Structures are given as C-alpha cells and as structure tokens.
From TrEMBL:
Mn(2+) binds at residues 70, 359, 401, 431. PANTHER family: PHOSPHO-2-DEHYDRO-3-DEOXYHEPTONATE ALDOLASE, PHOSPHO-2-DEHYDRO-3-DEOXYHEPTONATE ALDOLASE 1, 2. It catalyses: D-erythrose 4-phosphate + phosphoenolpyruvate + H2O = 7-phospho-2-dehydro-3-deoxy-D-arabino-heptonate + phosphate. This is Phospho-2-dehydro-3-deoxyheptonate aldolase. Residues 1-22 are annotated as: Disordered. Its cofactor is Mn(2+); Co(2+); Cd(2+). It comes from Saltatorellus ferox. It is an enzyme of class 2 (transferase).
C-alpha cells in the first residue's frame, strides 16, 4: 500500500518550491514534534468516505462544490465568518442540487487553508517616505499580513497556532452541522442577515425562495412515500480541504492508523498541490504520492500533456477510483486552446475534473488592486463546460474563492460592482473572493446552464 521508497519525510530529498525562509530550523522541529503528538483533525473513515463520493462524482453521479477563502486567517476564526461561509456553501449547494438533480459533495477551503504560495518572495513598500522591503505574506501558518518586520518574519510557532485555529474552526463546523443547522428540510435557516435586504436582486431572491420551497415540499413528499434515497439526498456533510503547501506541517500530521494500510494526512480530508508546486521531481509530488487521501492537483494553462500523464502515473498508478482530482484553472482566454489536450492525455484514466475559474482570471486595476471580473469567471466556467461536453468528459465540480460576507473584491455581478467600488470593503489578505451575492448568482447561472445541457443530451 505504501509506494516504494516512500515515507512521510521522503520529500526532504527533493527540491521544495515555495518553502518558507525559516531562520531557526530547531524551532521548526520543535513545532512539528508538537504537531505530531496531538490528536488529528480528521479520521481515515471520513477520508475514505469522501474518496467514495469523489469516485461517484467521477462517474457523473455527483457534483462537487469546493469553496472558501483564498487565505484563511486566525483573525477571522470567529463565529460569524465561519457560519456565513457554511451558509453560502449550503445555499449554493441547494441551488446546484435542484438544478443538476444530483447530490452535491460540499468541500470547504477551510480549517487549515493557512499557507499561501506567492509570485514574489519579497514585497517593497514606501513607509514614511522610505522604501522598505520585507518577506511577502505567506499565509498565517507562516507569518502575518501586517507590514512590519516582526509580522512578516516566518515564525515556526505559527505552525502550531494554525493547527489550533483549524481545530477550533472544524469543531464549530462539526457542531453546527451535527446540531441540525444544515438540515436540508429547513433551508430558510441559512439566510444570511442581509439576504432580505438589498444584497440579492429581487429576481434572484424570488427564484431562491421558490426553489427552496419546492425542494422542501419535494422532500416531504418523498419522505411520505418512503423513498429510500431521501436520506442520501438530504444528508448534509462538509469535508475540509486546503493546499498542502507547508510540508513540515503536512508531514507532521501524516500517520498510520489502526486497521487500515498506508498513511493518511489527517490535517484535512482533501489536500491539493498548487500550480506553483506540482513539479514532477519536486517535494510536493513526492509527499503526495504516498498519501491514502484523495488528492487534487491544480493545472494552469502551461500544463503539458506529458505533465498530465506523469502526474497520473505517479499519483494514481493503480487507477484507484476517487483518488485523483485535476482542478483546472486555465483562465477564460485559454480554456479552449489548452484544456482539450489535457483531457485527451488523461484518456480513460480515472480523474475527477473540477474547474477553478478564479486563479486564471486575476488582474490588477490601474490603481494596483487585485481583482477578478464576474464575467470572466462565468466565461471560464462556461467554456470549460463546453470543452468537457465536446470531449465527452464530465465536469464534476467547481472550485471558488468566496466568502459569505458582503465584501467588495471581485467586480461585476448583478449588483454591478465597479472598480471604483472595490475599496469599500476589500478584506482579503491575498486573492479577491466572490461575495455572498456574486457566489449565489454564479450557482444559479451554472445550475441553469448545466440543467439545459443535461436536457439537451437527454
Ligand atoms: O492563491 C493563490 C496564490 O497564492 C495567489 O494567487 C498568489 O498571489 P500573488 O501573485 O499576489 O503572489
Ligand atoms: C494558490 C492557489 O491556486 P493556484 O495554485 O491554482 O495558483 C489557491 O487555490 O489558492
Ligand atoms: Mn487564491
């Protein structure tokens, strides 16, 4: 079960891209020793269950909704942002269940999405008239976003602090879900405070209310008829995911478990490898190949057919169902040119294709604010769907950077957020997220379109 020559630390023999510039290796070792001694965040049972659901998504029987912050922060480890994130993911999943007539697998980018790869390792700003250069912000697992030498110093103590905040986040999510917060019979409970205010257009609000009423009526009818699948359709589960970037952290939480072969990364259900760290001979691919978790790999427009074939060969040599996810993030302009050859290269191997329409569509405004346009995000999704449907492959999910809060980070959407409006509430420490309304609107547009395509095929 454990691949040849692999052990949780075997990645150390390979070059690790994006490794934080820690100054005190002994302090890193102390932090990882602490992590290795603590109880894990998730269990192998949950991981195997997710893998079986992903296997069904590969076959076109389910759809995956993966979303959350670009960079989680310990400052936002508070009840409202966490509950609002669950609510928007629940609302979106309801729209998708209704539109696609398929169960949706909900996977948060949360409870550990604290490590960020960066384009530049250093950042220069003018402070009090002087040029100051400091390390970039690499996520709260490494340093802090504030622009002082102390905050930007990679501090190994953040590895343990990040783990504790991931545990608090997950504990709250589990309590909410187990306590009935996410019960599909009562979708009105998930309304965000501002749903009834101006945040949703009247048209979308009416459509959402009609749909949740229909769904709720339908469920009660199915229950009355003793429909067996109702339990399956209404059971709400959340799984966690994050970029498995910081290998000292990830490997400290990778363990053998009683009664199952192999090693599990018990820091999350679904770790993924980022676009910047997927080198075939690099440390991340080496580490991931030995995990029993399902694993994701981000694929950008420069990915070659050969990369795809070798990633499949290295990460899923036995073609295990539900094991390998390719998260394509081409950018609206590149999808049609670059995606078809990757689908062809994967051939008949078992892969779950998910579209991340965020990371290929980032640009900066003239005043230097990072943003994404709603239209480009939608276009990326639509083109990706079209390429899949022409190739006869199933687009099995979507991956968004989003928040349940009313931020102003991406432009466009029904409310017509303009570049001038971005500064009103731009809160992300890294990439721009869809706000509540933009997220729900996208779910509606996607569900309508996929339903139309389904009808067209049927
Ligand atoms: O989330 C993805 C990356 O960490 C992010 O896009 C990097 O942003 P940068 O190009 O500003 O470094
Ligand atoms: C770093 C990320 O994306 P990518 O690796 O696709 O650039 C991310 O999803 O936050
Ligand atoms: Mn991002």
């Amino acid at each position: 079960m454990t691949p040849q020559d692999w052990f949780p630390q075997s990645w150390r023999t390979r070059p690790a891209a994006q490794a934080p510039p820690y100054e005190d290796e002994a302090a890193v070792q102390r932090a990882t020793d602490t992590l290795a001694s603590l109880p894990p965040l998730v269990t192998s049972w949950e991981i195997e269950r997710l893998k079986s659901l992903l296997a069904e998504a590969q076959e076109g029987k389910r759809f995956v909704l993966q979303g959350g912050d670009c960079a989680e922060t310990v400052a936002d480890c508070r009840p409202e942002p966490i509950a609002d994130k669950l609510k928007i993911l629940l609302q979106m999943s309801l729209v998708l269940v209704h539109g696609l007539r398929r169960p949706v697998v909900r996977i948060g980018r949360f409870a550990g999405q604290y490590a960020k790869p960066r384009s530049q390792y250093i950042e220069t700003r003018i402070v009090d008239g002087k040029e100051v250069t400091l390390p970039s912000y690499f996520g709260d697992l490494v340093n802090r976003v504030g622009f002082t030498a102390e905050e930007r110093r990679p501090d190994p103590a953040n590895l343990v602090a990040g783990f504790h905040h991931a545990a608090l986040t997950l504990n709250f999510i589990r309590a909410l879900v187990d306590g009935g917060f996410a019960d599909l019979h009562h979708p009105h409970q998930w309304d965000l405070a501002f749903t009834r205010e101006a945040a949703l257009s009247a048209e979308l609000r009416a459509e959402y209310e009609r749909m949740s009423q229909n769904l709720s009526d339908g469920m009660h009818l199915m229950e009355a008829l003793g429909e067996a699948r109702i339990e399956e359709l209404t059971r709400v589960e959340f799984f966690t995911s994050h970029e498995g970037l910081n290998l000292p952290y990830e490997s400290a939480l990778t363990r053998e478990v009683p009664r199952r072969p192999g090693h599990y990364n018990l820091s999350t259900h679904l770790p993924w490898i980022g676009e910047r760290t997927r080198a075939l001979d690099g440390a991340h691919v080496e580490f991931f190949r030995g995990l029993r978790n399902p694993v994701g790999v981000k694929l950008g427009p420069k990915t070659t057919a050969d990369d795809v074939r070798q990633l499949i060969e290295t990460l899923n040599p036995e073609d295990e169902p539900g094991r390998l996810i390719f998260i394509t993030r081409m950018g609206a302009k590149h999808v049609e040119n670059e995606l078809p050859r990757l689908l062809e290269a994967a051939g008949r191997h078992r892969v779950l294709w998910i579209c991340d329409p965020m990371h290929g569509n980032t640009h900066s405004t003239a005043s230097g604010i990072k943003t994404r346009s709603f239209d480009a995000i939608l276009e990326d999704l639509e083109r990706t769907q079209d390429v899949h449907s022409r190739a006869g492959t199933w687009l099995g999910g979507v991956h968004f950077e989003l928040t349940g809060q009313d931020v102003t980070e991406c432009v466009g959407g029904a409310a017509g957020l303009s570049e001038e409006g971005l500064e009103a509430n731009y809160a992300s420490p890294c990439d721009p997220r869809l706000n509540y309304q933009q997220s729900l609107e996208l779910a509606f547009l996607l569900a309508r379109r996929m339903r139309g395509q389904d009808r067209g095929q049927g």
